[in-house]
Amino acid sequence: MSVLTTVSPVRIAGVGRTFGGATGTIALEHVDLTVEQGEFVCLLGASGCGKSTLLAMVAGLDEPTTGTIDLGGRRTAVMFQDANLFPWLTVGGNIELALRFSGVSKADWKRRTAELLDVVRLPGAERRRPHELSGGMRQRVALARSLAQDAEVLLMDEPFAALDAITRDALHGEIERIAGERGLTVLFVTHNVREAVRLGDRVIVMKPSPGRIVREERVPLPRPRRMEDPEVARRAGLLHDELDVQAGGAR
Questions:
Q1: What are 3-13's pLDDT values in tens digits?
Q2: Helix (H, G, I), strand (E, B), or coil: what is residue 153?
Q3: 52: helix, coil or strand?
Q4: Would you call 207 helix, strand, or coil by DSSP?
Q5: Which residues form a coiled coil (predicted)?
Q6: Side by side, which strands form the sheet with 25-35?
């Protein structure tokens, strides 16, 4: 993968991904996207449009068949729909594992872990086990573990999709607050239109067969926002219409 010189944290140029060789399935084709420093960008689209595939390539978990992805040497951290906590470790142990791989001195693990749990509003939870936590609490621990990696770019693959509405709304506020306080650049995958408008500075609409970007929508609404805000609902409705058009074209 060639390297581009850019000041933007994420630059995706002409990216395509084919599975199964030259005659296989084209998952993505001709994707161009630049994400600026501190920007919160949501990738929106139906299942099969390549959102998660694109995120995996930005994370370095996969390679594009064509095109280039440049992060300018910046570190990334990934959050998934499943918190993926190690059940045999405590909350503190899960976070300390990330600190270890980030090169943090062992003498600082407990202090940093306590600080990160304060950030995600789970103070004093170090000794608890994952099975003792609610789904929302597990995702807070997963977020703390991601932050432990001192990444500048946070990649989130439908991290709140399995949560109830009340917990999801609370975590929307938390990730919005943390991203703002830390100046994080966020690339967030979702199929929930209102969630995209609620969180994103910009919403990237993708279509399937093959996956491509078909629309970019800026969301110049003040923060904090709520899912039920009338303007969030109005903008979400317009994007929903776009997704309906794309779904019809894919059939």
A1: 444 468 999 99
A2: strand
A3: helix
A4: strand
A5: none
A6: 25-35, 10-19, 66-70
Q: Which long-range contacts (CB under 8 A, 24 or more apart) does 99-103 make?
A: 99/148, 101/149, 102/148, 102/149, 102/150
59, 92, 111 from 124: Cα distances, Å = 31, 9, 12
pTM: 0.91
pLDDT in tens, 10-67: 999 999 999 987 678 899 999 999 999 999 999 999 888 999 999 999 999 999 999 9
Q: How many Å apart are CA 171 and CA 166, to the nearest integer?
A: 9
Q: How far out from the chain centre does Cα 143 lie?
A: 11
Q: Which fold has domain 36-62+152-251?
A: Rossmann fold (3.40.50)
Question: Cβ distance 4 to 70 under 8 Å?
Answer: yes
Domain residue ranges in the chain: 36-62+152-251, 82-151
